[in-house]
Amino acid sequence: MIVYALFVVLTCVGCTNQKQQKMEKSSGQETVIPEQIKILILGDSLTDGYGVSREQAYPAQLEKILQKQGLQVRIINAGSSGSTSASALERLQWHMQAKPDILLLALGGNDGLRGVSITATFENLARTIDLAKANDIRVFLASMKLPYNYGQDYRTSFEGMYERLVQDKDIQAVPFMLEGVGGVKEMNLPDGIHPNEQGHVKIANNMATFFLSELP
């Protein structure tokens, strides 16, 4: 009898919950969970967080900032130290299994530092952008800059490459992510190239300003 009574009580509770759920739906009070936005950041050592932990790198810091602002976002850190634009297409193909909504393409810096043909870098990035757009992935392009010792002509052509990609592919450029970090001693590791933890926080804040103006 005790078992039977317990069964009746649980059944009634279940019925009550179902009725309550139906009432909420019928009265338009059903809770709607915002859809999560997946942002894939395809980059090199800067994105990977060379010299700091993944938790200290700017993608993780950026995710925290955006979430604190109430945005339902998940940032996928697809950084790979030492990578160039040559690997971009293949890497995007692999990461597409995560079904990202947005691609932040942050590659090309190592191409420039190694003197890779600007035409080759352009074509590599262009093909990657084409693949993203063909799969309805919104693309943001992070432009890179080179040190002054690379010569004015090469630096101008290199930076102009990003401007051409933005125009030719009808995508949006991200403001220079290393603003306030590049060339600032206290923001970088002893090598003077890679940001330290403080530098990554600054990058994340730079990027957050942009994303907060672009995301719903």
Question: How are the elements arranged and paired?
Answer:
Layout: H1 2-26, E1 37-43, H2 45-48, H3 58-68, E2 73-79, H4 88-95, E3 102-106, H5 109-113, H6 118-134, E4 138-142, H7 152-169, E5 172-174, H8 197-214
Parallel strand pairs: 1-2, 1-3, 3-4, 4-5
Oligomerization: single chain
Architecture (CATH level 2) name:
3-Layer(aba) Sandwich
Task: Give the DSSP E fraction (strand runs of 2 or more residues).
Answer: 5-15%
- Highest CATH level, the class: Alpha Beta
> Could you tell me the radius of gyration in angstroms?
23 Å
The CATH topology comes to Rossmann fold
The parts where pLDDT drops under 50 for at least 5 residues are 1-27
Q: Give the SSE string.
A: HEHHEHEHHEHEH
Shape: globular
What does this structure look like?
The chain has a single domain, classed as SGNH hydrolase (Rossmann fold). Helices cover 49% and strands 12% of the residues. The protein has 8 helices and 5 strands.
